[in-house]
Write a structure and sequence with these properties.
Helix content of chain B: 25-40%
Number of helices of chain A: 19
CATH architecture of the largest domain in chain B: 2-Layer Sandwich
Structural class of chain B: alpha+beta
Oligomer: heterodimer
Number of strands of chain B: 13
CATH topology of the largest domain in chain B: D-amino Acid Aminotransferase, Chain A, domain 1
Strand content of chain B: 15-25%
Shape of chain B: globular
Strand content of chain A: 15-25%
Largest sheet of chain A: 5 strands, antiparallel
Shape of chain A: elongated
Number of domains of chain B: 2
């Protein structure tokens, strides 16, 4: 019994299970904290929002307070900085983060820049927790306006949506009725609509407030902050888009300020204006992983991972990380399926070359090199050379064939030929040598079968390792290689029949 | 077409029921368990096998000489001495590769078994190839072994095309477990390897007479080239054949081995070579799985017997 428990197979199974659990956790960890994805999305959008604040000093000491985005699960801040000469900067973290700049009195027009770089902002949503607000103050309206307002509230009922949406929709009508025209300026801005809606909702005792943020759209320049209307209904705050009355924050919307606070307060200055610009850039996902790890307080592990290496080393490792999977396929092909190939890892190296050359060009090129090589090798066998010099000659043949192909391919603009250089020279020479010996000893049919089997396994391996997704997964979640290691070791104890043996020994089973 | 393809496969459970030994199981359960790696050189190096066999009183073709270095190649005639016919083979060869059978020579040429004439230079070249490792396992440097030619018994003359028919016996823990005779054909190029198209004739382990014959995995009744009736085969000196196999166990210490034995007209059965990784085709030639036989030996056969006692034990089982 004890022997059974401590048997190799049992130990390996336990190790396989442990490594699978480890890999599972690690995949969760990397997607959760480092932002790795299971698909090979190489690039992540990085948005730069720039707020340009300008105002005229009044001669008093200056204090500028700007609301800034608060990081939550919906986006991550890569970097933020302020360009303001002669100002002291202070960050305040509260319900709404603010940057406060102070300076002694100044004279000329002031320009202050605040820049923030964000990423991973795909899932912005608009849920807000807030205490129950007091009943809204009724707006002061003269008799005529009040009557118009009542008429508007009445006609709003015919619009679609809930009561807040009805009002927003009414105010947004493309061919507004007379009452709307009376209530709003002809050239209505988002702000006008928002205020009108707030007034009308106040008449219905619905508390409202405005929040400001930035809708991330490529290359928006010099615009004012986008407004969102928040209304308190059914015991919670809901955010409404002012232009189409949609509930919730739109995609790619970054809130700067919400609740009763202002977007910007300037003391010691007048005519203050805030203009925003948005620029989109891209950055490699894995480059941002370090930043993500830092934000999630998981930096130490990241520093010792391969993703913190220079990009060149990363690329080399990325290539290496696919090897274990290729090896697993070879093991399956040989010990479970039972296909005999020339040399153990020849098919894997061939498939690696196919990845670099492309499938069809690679196969054509491989076929040509082997055929020409076999032809030259047949001539060589007449010379009765000793083993090492003969193999060496084949190696040189292969090099010369590759060189000729590459030159011809370039001159004749025949790309297929140029891929010749990607095949491993020594491996090609051995394939030619082995095939040639088999040809002499067991006939061309057996030689062809050997080459075909090796190529078949190479093609199967190619289709698996050429997948961008699989390559990405094996690199981003490289602990899977540990699972593969134990799978390969466990296959080392597989004593069942190979698939080809089911055919080979079938006469015995049939009793013939 | 597709249906035919699938029906040519059997199920693992059926193979298991027939006691068939698969390659993975052979390697894992038998070879790696019973055949220690350090014992391999004893059977992989034909010079070592030969000297060891002589010590254990097993007849093998006589050793004429060994050519170890390139400069000795020119001394070939001196080494041959009085021998009229001989065989040149690589000490570390396998599957009959690099074996050159010389049936006679004159002042300017050698004659091969097939009657083909070879110049001295061609033979020197062949020996040089052997030394450079062309035929050795793994391609390492090798030595060329010159041994006396077996004058094989005429009994099997009609059963073989060119090459020498030999008997392969699988020996498990010293007990002969399964045996077959391998007959060269035109298709196999005069060589006795089943995968190259030689005929395999399964032999009853207790009598040495034919059970059935296969070629390329298909049952046959007549030799494809000579037309001889294969079911008539009955190997004489069967006990002596088995004793050679059984002794090979004590000689090498290999728990699972294949012994290749030929029948010399004057000297009787002779051990040609031993194999630490014998193939599985013998099961097809016998129409029977070997795993059940091995398990039976493991479980029920007595231990601590001499080779002769073991052979008699096996022979007696057949009489019952």
């Amino acid at each position: 019994m004890l022997k059974k428990v401590t048997s190799v197979r049992f130990v390996l199974s336990v190790l396989l299970l442990l490594s699978a659990i480890f890999a599972g956790y690690s995949i969760y960890y990397k997607t959760r904290y480092w932002g790795f994805s299971l698909t090979p999305k190489k690039l992540t959008d990085v948005w730069t929002i720039e707020a340009h604040i300008s105002f005229n000093p009044t001669g008093d000491p200056i204090k500028v307070s700007l609301a800034t985005p608060t990081e939550d699960n919906n986006f991550k801040i890569l970097e933020q900085d302020v360009v303001a000469e002669g100002y002291k900067t202070k960050r305040i973290k509260a319900d709404t983060n603010r940057i406060v700049l102070t300076s002694p009195a100044k004279e000329s027009m002031q320009d202050i820049y605040y820049r923030v770089m964000l990423f991973d902002n795909e899932k912005a949503s608009g849920k807000t927790k807030a205490p129950v607000p007091p009943a809204p103050q009724k707006p002061y309206l003269d008799e005529q306006m009040s009557a118009t307002a009542q008429k508007l509230l009445k006609s709003a009922k015919k619009m679609s949506g809930n009561e807040v949406q009805q009002i927003i929709n009414l105010l947004n009508q493309t061919t507004p009725d007379a009452n709307v025209l009376a209530f709003l300026p002809i050239k209505k801005s988002a702000k006008d609509i928002a205020q009108a809606a707030q007034n009308l909702l106040a008449l219905k005792n619905i508390p409202t407030r405005l929040s400001r943020g930035i809708k991330l759209v490529e290359n928006r320049k010099s615009f004012s902050a986008d407004l969102m209307l928040e209304a308190y209904t059914d015991g919670k705050w809901k955010t409404y888009n002012i232009s189409d009355a949609a509930i919730g924050l739109p995609d790619n919307f970054i809130l700067f300020q919400r609740g009763g606070e202002s977007l910007i307060d300037v003391e010691g200055g007048e005519d203050s204006v805030v203009k925003f610009s948005v620029i989109k850039s891209v950055s490699s996902s894995i480059n941002l992983a370090g930043q993500r790890a830092k934000l999630a307080h998981q930096k130490a592990l990241f520093d010792y991972s391969i993703y913190n290496l220079p990009i060149m080393q990363q690329n080399t490792l990325k290539w290496l990380m696919i090897f274990p999977l290729g090896i697993l396929i070879i093991v399956l092909m040989r010990n479970v399926i039972g296909i005999q190939t020339m040399g153990t890892f020849t098919p894997m190296l061939l498939s690696m070359s196919l990845v670099k050359t492309g499938f069809v060009p690679g196969l054509v090129c491989f076929g040509l090199i082997v055929s020409i090589g076999l032809l030259l090798r047949a001539l060589l066998s007449k010379l009765n050379l000793l083993l090492v010099p003969r193999i060496s000659s084949v190696v040189i043949f292969v090099i010369l064939i590759m060189q000729a192909f590459t030159i011809l391919g370039y001159k004749l603009h025949f790309d297929i030929a140029s891929s010749a250089a990607f095949f491993p020279i020594i491996i090609m020479a051995w394939i030619i040598e082995r095939a040639s010996i088999t040809w002499e000893e067991d006939g061309p049919a057996n030689a062809g079968k050997e080459v075909f089997n090796s190529l078949l396994v190479a093609i199967i391996t190619y289709f698996i390792i050429s997948s961008e997704t699989i390559r990405h997964i094996m690199f981003a979640f490289n602990e899977l290689n540990l699972v593969i290691l134990f799978m390969v070791m466990l296959l080392g104890t597989y004593t069942g029949y190979r698939l080809t043996e089911l055919k080979r020994f079938s006469p015995i089973a049939a009793g013939k | 077409m597709i249906k035919d393809f699938f029906s040519s496969f059997t199920s693992p459970s059926k193979l298991h029921a027939a006691g068939v030994l698969g390659m993975n199981s052979r390697n894992y359960n038998f070879i790696s368990r019973l055949n220690s790696r350090r014992l391999y050189p004893l059977v992989d190096d034909k010079v070592q096998t030969k000297t060891l066999a002589q010590k254990h009183g097993i007849t093998t073709p006589g050793l004429i000489g060994v050519i170890e270095y390139q400069h000795q190649v020119k001394d070939l005639l001196k080494i041959i001495g009085n021998a009229k016919d001989f065989v040149i083979k690589p000490a570390h060869g396998s599957g009959g590769k690099g074996v050159l059978v010389i049936t006679g020579f004159t002042e300017d040429c050698f004659t091969k078994a097939s009657g083909e004439k070879l110049t001295f230079n061609e033979v020197y070249q062949h020996i040089s190839n052997i030394l450079s490792g062309l035929y050795s396992l793994g391609g390492q440097y090798d030595v060329a072994v010159l041994e006396e030619l077996v004058h094989f018994s005429n009994i099997f003359k009609d059963y073989s095309y060119q090459g020498i028919p030999d008997v392969r016996i699988i020996v498990y823990k010293g007990y002969p477990a399964m045996s077959m005779m391998r007959l060269a054909t035109k298709a196999s190029g005069g060589r006795a390897n089943l995968h190259q198209g030689a005929v395999g004739v399964g032999l009853d382990i207790s009598s040495g007479s034919a059970l059935k014959a296969v070629m390329n995995n298909l049952p046959i009744t007549k030799h494809p080239d000579t037309g001889a009736e294969l079911s008539q085969i009955s190997v004489p000196y069967w006990r002596e054949h088995l004793i050679i196999g059984a002794k090979a166990y004590e000689m090498t210490g290999l728990g699972y081995l294949g012994a290749d034995i030929v029948l010399d007209a004057q000297k009787g059965p002779m051990m040609l070579e031993l194999n630490a990784r014998p193939g599985l085709a013998i099961q097809i030639a016998n129409g029977k799985g070997i795993e059940s036989v091995l398990k039976n030996i493991e479980k029920n056969y007595p231990t601590n017997l001499t080779p002769e006692e073991r052979v008699d034990y096996v022979l007696n089982l057949g009489k019952k």
